[in-house]
Design goal:
alpha/beta; Nucleotidyltransferase, domain 5; five-stranded mixed sheet; 10 helices; ROK; ATPase_NBD; ROK family protein
Length: 297
């Protein structure tokens, strides 16, 4: 049996898992990410890997973008301020003596869902996570499509609404500023509502609050328009939606599918399939291991 290490670096926690070639998670550990000192987190990673006690094929690592995937460099993820322009791949290879493969979290989630999840058996899988932010990945025959410089599927800043809402460093009217959980909650609170997360905004809308209903309508409408655009450009077999908003807001995935069907050519409606992700929080770890095993073929 062959083994790989999958790592999921988040703004709050880092998870490290030993995964076999059948994508079964044998062992996992979690610890706080040091958002200011990446070397500290890498030392913790090495300690965990040493403790597994198995020979491994390599390390796959999922990290928030944007990333320079060609050179293995973390660029400017907002939730990891001390990691900006950090040579992650090179540093971790030196510490562990193992080959390291860096990929953004959306791409790895897509790869996992394409390999053993909701997109298994499909040639063209489009994944989107609708959560704190909006990320994406596209796989063709279980291979990540990265584009010319590795920035394919960096969709968060895609502009759909002229002079629309914005947040952080994103442009006005970007899809993440409209349909992410953060955006839905922020727009509700800016309008005078009191919401801790998007699920509460949805509940207010169900109870008849028109402001909340309008905010949810914007999320549904612009996100489904975006998927319609992706369908016209990429013609995927399936859309897989993950993330807390997509999976926890009742009928979110169904609502998006119904609307996307109305936004493509009538003759193509039956080709549109939008389904929920099935691997949960393990998709980044499994995708990272998949990346390692692919590299060894």
């Amino acid at each position: 049996m062959k083994y790989a290490v999958g790592i999921d670096v988040g703004g709050t926690n880092t998870r490290v898992a030993l995964i076999d070639e059948n994508y079964k998670i044998i062992e996992r550990r979690q610890f706080p990410t040091n958002e200011e000192e990446p070397e500290t987190t890498l030392n913790d990673i090495k300690t965990v890997i040493d403790g597994f006690g198995y020979p491994v094929e390599g390390i796959g690592i999922s990290c928030p973008g944007p990333l320079d995937l060609i050179n293995g460099v973390v660029l400017t993820p907002p939730n990891l301020p001390g990691w900006h322009y950090f040579e992650l791949t090179k540093c971790l290879e030196v510490k562990t003596g193992l080959s390291v493969y860096l990929e953004n979290d959306g791409n790895l989630a897509c790869l996992a869902e394409a390999a053993i999840g909701a997109g298994k058996g499909k040639g063209y899988v489009q994944f989107l996570t609708i959560s704190t932010g909006i990320g994406a990945g596209f796989c063709v025959n279980q291979n990540i499509f990265r584009g010319a410089k590795g920035f394919a599927q960096e969709v968060a800043n895609s502009i759909l609404w002229k002079n629309g809402p914005f947040q952080g460093n994103l442009k006005k009217g970007s899809i993440e500023s409209i349909a992410s959980g953060t955006a839905i909650t922020k727009r509700a609170n800016d309008a005078g509502l009191r919401a801790a997360h998007a699920g509460e905004v949805y509940q207010m809308a169900q109870e008849g609050n028109q402001t909340a209903a309008d905010i949810m309508e914007d999320a549904y409408e612009y996100l489904s328009s975006f998927l319609g655009i992706l369908y016209g450009v990429l013609d995927p077999d399936i859309f897989v939606l993950g993330g807390s908003v997509a999976l926890k807001v009742p009928r979110f995935v169904e609502e998006i599918e119904e609307r996307v069907k109305e936004k493509v050519y009538d003759a193509l409606k039956d080709n549109v399939h939008v389904v929920p992700a099935v691997l949960g929080e393990d998709c980044g770890l499994i995708g990272a291991a998949c990346l390692v095993f692919q590299s060894k073929k």
